[in-house]
Write a structure and sequence with these properties.
By secondary structure, the chain is mainly α. Helices cover 75% and strands 2% of the residues. The protein has one domain: Growth Hormone, Chain: A.
Length: 508
Amino acid sequence: MSILRHRQLLLSLKYGTIESCFSVPMLQLTLGHMPFAIGFAVTALGWDAGGVGFLAATPFLGYVLQVPISFVLQRHYSWHAIVRGAFVANAAPWFLVLSFPYVAPSARDGIFAAVVLLSALANAVCAVAWSASMSELVPLRVRGRYFGRRNLIYGFWTLLVLVAVGQIADWTNNSLSVLAAVYAAAAVSRLIGLFFFMRMTFPRTVMDKHHETMALGGLVTPLKDGNFLLFLAFHGLFGLFLFVGLPFYSVFVLTELRFTLGGLTVLTTLGNLAGLLSVGTWGPLTDRFGVKPVMTGVVILWTTTASILWLFACPERAYLAYPSFIVYGFMWTLMQLLQFTFMLKMVPAGSRAHYISTYYATTYVLTLLGPFLGGRLLASLPDVLGTLFDQPLTRYHAVLVGSLVMCLATVFILRIVSEPRAGSLREMVRHMSSRTEFNPFLMLAAAFQGLFGGRVFETALREARRTFRRQAGALAGVGQELMEGSWRALRQPFRKRDDDADTPVSDQ
């Protein structure tokens, strides 16, 4: 493997971050399991739960179908060439959406389904080759820190894009022509991301073809690794149970809580903003304690908190959708970072293509069943199952909360996965409780510092925190003085009466 010069590596990592700022917003708008694509299908095309189930399954169906495609492509092309072609194939179908205002509604459904499926398949092929390429480029010692900061930066730009698109959707009353233009702009953004990807410098193992040709027999090798099988079982079952409910968060918000498409993008934006706060300090935490303890804590905290919030969400308490999406965004962003880092850590250096392809194919063949199962459950369950604390218990409550409870059960598999040099959950929690950077003030400071550099925001938030403590101390002092003064005032008449009783009576 050729070694890049330090300057080449730094520039490549920089261009990799810029590329993500153009590519990820496009993926947030176009991937079938993302809220905007689901909201578009429900509000603009009138799709039901079954259609949403298919839509949400397309990204994972793409990862399953990419195995034979990647097998053929890697026999003739380098990873770099595959990524370049997949970028174009991922973006190009979305220009067909520009025809929606001019075709019959029945034709729109077929075009949209085909576009989403083809784009998802191209993105899956791209993801395998891109992951293998980045694993060759990014040094192991900084992967957690680099991908954490990268996720932070592209998450910020994704947040801005979603806010703008949501407002445009509301201002134009979900105009088909305007939303079609939004999808075309997203495709252009993906192609701009390709431009920056092509400016990156990779080792020869990425640029040359036949660097690690996939063989069908080699795909069986990862399945003989017992620890890797446990790793696959956890991720596959967690994805299956999570996506029984996750795609229908958006449907529940739109149909039951009566949010608009613009309101849904506000919820998505809040989730992305929470995701920004999750990566600033948790990336270095995985570098210190390993991925497994952090992931265990995330699953436990996520499933228990989200279950309570969704259980009590109803039209009268529609505001609970806001904290629900914040919890989802915070944990999902962190979970994606952890899954990718964990996968790279578990993959042997000599079999990256085989292991990564097997990881995506095996885990996503389970995950793609989730949306279909969720859609089937919603179609078969009655609208109202009963009452809970004088609130109707609907089919959405059963599916959303039930999926989270099953996700929590997968922790038992994660606990027996072996990770080299990983700390324990108890050690990590003890470290977090003794470190000030794991409070909300400094998580926000870390996010701003990671985005804009410098220490201005961190210093301002530290000073605000110190001021708050000083003011709280002063208030406590005033309160104590008031209580003591009031007590003295109350006791004064009785004390005077006691003193008079003790005074000797004069004989005069």
